[in-house]
Amino acid sequence: MRATVPALRLAAPLNERLRRGVHGRRLALESLTAWSRAHRDPRRPLVWLHAPSVGEALMAQAILAETRTRMPEAQFVFTHFSPSAERVAPTVGADWSGYLPWDRPHDIRAALDATSPGCVAFVRTEIWPVLVREAAARGRANVLVNAALAGDSSRLGRGARLLLGPAYRRLDAVGAVTGEDAALFALLGVPRSRLHVTGDARFDQVWQRVQRLDPARPLLRPFRDDGRPWVVAGSSWPADEELLIEAMSLARSWRLVIAPHEPSPDHIDRLEQRIAAAGLTYRRLPADDEEAALDVDVVIVDRMGVLADLYAIADVAYVGGGFGTAGLHSVVEPAALGVPVVYGPRHGNAREAERLRIAGGGFVIADGATLRSMLTRLIGDETARANAGTAARRFVQQHLGGAARSAEIITETMRGRTP
């Protein structure tokens, strides 16, 4: 890390995400220390939650809320690694949120001095060896909650296990999403007596958000008409978009919302050119306060943070990532809204996608022809669509409770009891 940080600082001007991450970490320790001087109450316990990126930050949000109900007197610090979590970090619910300082002894010791946490809780996958070591040396609890690990993860390689093994062995408890995950963490050196199966807090976070959804939000008003059904495609990549546009140009019995995973100006421009070349009409998503008629074939979402709400107007949802190498994105949000979910064949990274298929709420397509056939069937058969939507919502409801079980691990470990 000592060698890497100077190199990252030199490279930062060449990459916007890297620049934001380096800049955020440079200010993080100073900001955390200032918060501690002004607001840290040493009479109150403190939980330090860490998540790698935006998805894990949303899981941390649900876990933090459940932990607060069990320890209303506690204070909370939330840190993240990726710049993509910047926009959601303030919504997690912590008393202070920001970047994780560099995992170097000086920085970590200063952060621990400032916060004096009773527990450091890592969410999902990412643990940092120096933070774990220094917290354990002070007698603080270290836990990994809502933990998942793929069978082909690089963490299971010999070199990674040699490097990270001491940190995993120092964890006081691991709350794994499934029994399969728990078995893999045992291979990393976590004693089996410290492994627990909790389920996935992602379901709780999404369910809570769905319950707060305002169907009268101005963003959704233009979609409320008696026209063709809506297919909402979320987190799409170019491979997904090519299939969707082709299917749309041949069917025209439904309308399409496309929310790219990375709605950069260049991506949006190329997407518009592809739609126009297919002979389809389009427009970009209206602003919340804009009165607009959506009498077009395709609506393009050119901003972040609105996809979860847009799933509420979908008759059928398409989740992107199943035709590339980035991995399938979350199918839980549309499922929680009772919307049938369609996705591509490469979904091994998202185990809930296969379980949703088995439950009757998810549908896997192999190519453009099967996509057209599946959308035609779901849109044309109202009963089949309703049954699939009901199965999708029931699937989410059956998997609630992971956030509460993760919170129990944090609170019981922090209090020195076996979870």
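The above is record 1. Record 2 follows with the same two-line structure.
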Amino acid sequence: MRTYVDCMPCFMNQAIRGPRRFTDDPGVVEAIGREVAAELARYDFHDPPPVLGGTVNRIISRHLGVRDPYLDEKRRFNGLALELLPALRERIERSPDPFETAVRLAVAGNAIDFGSPGGRTDGRLAELIEEALSADVAGGGTAAIARLGEATARAGSILYLADNAGEIVLDRLLIERLPPGAVTVAVRSGPVINDALRADAEQAGLNEVAAVIESGVAMPGTPLDLCSADLRERFRSADLVISKGQGNFETLSEAPRAVWFLLMIKCEVVARHAGCAVGDLVVLPPAAA
């Protein structure tokens, strides 16, 4: 998916509102805004938005003098989700369709997003979860969830592309329903907004239920041509690929293989591209699935 002019206000919003979470120095915020505006002016809009998102994040980090500004926020959201994990696991077990409930919870976690205008940053996870368990599912609907369950049961290898911290804890609930030993989870290789790193996967306990690798990029998505050779090979050879989140959708919606997309739609650009509406919880199967 290419970048559109509609994306420009979102990047400027990240450049101005994001740094204000960490500094009250107007000079720093102005310098970040000016540099990001200059990057926007020369950016190749044929590249997907997360490529520029990685650049914006590096500009912010450099001016703040902090490698990972969202480190404390990521740890906090991981902790909040971990507190809910035992009750949610029990709820899955008691539900009429445990797999569907686990998928709904994983998709609900994608609402935790400090980089998108429609992302949730308030920490009210219990409320978010209740909304997701009763909401309609867009994309392929509940029938798509059932087909995903059938597809995962047949898969000998599954590549699970993670997205944000906090969300990654709810991903564990779905990964626990997948074939044991089949799942590899890919996280980012460096800090970018609140996206999950290896440390977040370990805090969530994903290393106990899956292999964890890094994508090779510090961008809020998975642009294959920039990722590591290991990630590209796993993406090519996996029996099944599950992509979490909007940034991964933006970079992989035109990928040269079948991908299952699980996400919450947070902006009009992605809504148009996915054929859904802002705020939708989406399970989007490959065209041939």
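The chain has twelve helices and seven strands.
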